[in-house]
User: What shape does this take?
Amino acid sequence: MTAFKALGLEENLLKAITDMGFETPSEVQEKAIPILLERETDMVALAQTGTGKTAAFGFPMLQKIDVKSRTTQGLILSPTRELCLQITNEMIAYGKYMPGLNVTAVYGGASITDQARQIKKGSQIIVATPGRMKDMIGRRLVDISKIEYCVLDEADEMLNMGFYEDITEILSHSPKEKSTWLFSATMPKEVSTIAKKFMHTPVEITVGTKNVGSDQVSHEYYLVNARDRYNALKRLADANPEIFSVIFCRTKRDTQKVAEQLIEDGYNAAAIHGDLSQNQRDLVMKSFRARQIQMLVATDVAARGIDVDDITHVINYQLPDEIETYTHRSGRTGRAGKTGISMVIVSKSEVRKIHTIEKMIQKKFIAKEIPSGMEICEVQMFHLANNIKDTKINHEIDAYLPNINEVLADFSKEELIKKVFSVEFTRFLNYYKNSKDLNISGGGERNFSEEDNKDSTRYFVNIGNKDDFDWMSLKDFLRDLLQLGKDDVYKVDVKDSFSFFNTDSTHQELVMGIFKDFKLDGRQINIEISKDTGRSKGRSGGGGGGRDRGKRRSDSRDRGGDRGERRGSFKKRSGGSSGSDKPAFKGKGRRGSERPETKGTGGRRRRKE
Ligand code: ADP
Ligand code: MG
Assistant: This one.
């Protein structure tokens, strides 16, 4: 808190900051706030999404305006309605100890007269989307001739969305002698142009390196045949039962199609794109925030409004046309100090783009392989076991227990476990049993080596991210523990509460022996030999040296083909609703996942890559 005070902020703001739980200023706040407080100046600030830009301009603006006056003194322009509302709410929260403060949001799709009325009451600050703002100025419903501070938030995005002319028009109604603060994640030519046009010798601030993605995000790509894209997406979801994700498609049509297909296949999914009404988009976002939707399929434009912390995965179903957009996409995860994964499903023809993106973000991608069906089954079974373990007992069932106990009286605990899992899993297992390998080997540099045919044992162990391991640290840990050489532990794949790894089969006894009665922080660690050989897990890049790349095996058993991959039925996805409050899709949000391709939607045949 003293750190905020040192920036020059006053007591009423500091109090609100404490309430919000902010402890230390972010870098962009540290750099921008003192300057903006101290002098009247224009500013260009470049910082990634999620770095706290709102407060960087919000605190100084609040401190500098006069709340006793009812004149509009500050204008904040932002690209989407969602962002506009978010900024408004943040400003209100920051200004909660500033009696008399009025912040009004102005955006399309809501009553213009209501907004005008609110402004008339005396809004010192207006947060607006350019289109509606221009309208209101045109109709003389708002007067910005006395503003002293103007913020262009997410300037790159506003220009991407074609707001250049609206912005020019709006600013022509504002006084010349004001301070303009431009905030942007990237600095394309258009942004420099607008900076030159509207600003006088702005102070420039850059946080981190331009265009470099957050350190909190790891980047992975999965090479598949274009026609397997959708199935690959489902496997990625199935292999991550707790996924809370945004899935990016290139077009509105694909966005809608993928979402519909996912819903039909029993996932909690929804689409968000520009063809939905504002009201529909709001409802979708509300369900997403409430976690009723686990997979939000979005276009790039629509996703600009998504400001949800805790997103675990961003999945690039298709790569964006403009690679700069990739940074925006991956910036949806890894927010607020959390880690996140940005996954890209690529076909062979797009692999080159990965390298271009690596240069841009100055980070390596990890080449991974789509999990095999059996691997997914293991993940899911363990997830179910954990769920059972963590479930609070519902005492409403107590009354039925005597009868239930009677029916099951003859079974031991072991038998019951087996039965419960059989009930839940038989269909799922059957479904994935004959699933094919979706991976294709990626040309030249990613050939798979002979050594992969060596006898190898794959293990399953119940330690993972939860225990602060990532694949590298787990590998180190295992090597130390087992006293093995540098390359003797490989194909390490760390999930949330468990992991897989391989050793040559000659080490199997050693591994099983050491883990026999092994405790970590007092917790009993279990290890099992996994049936899956780990052949579909690979890793490279990230300095990993490519020792343990995945391999290919043309296993005849895998030939059956799972064109019609449907998810198994065991996971009772809540669906969140009966569909009536989910306008974004045609499906009913039910989990009738087992239905074959009968619906006239054309199913996967319709998918064109
Ligand atoms: P940006 O506009 O750069 O994308 P936001 O201003 O939306 O980022 O901030 C992202 C999140 O971080 C918000 O939830 C915000 O409340 C939070 N936040 C901002 N500043 C701080 C801080 N100093 N400490 C902790 N959390 C912060
Ligand atoms: Mg922002």
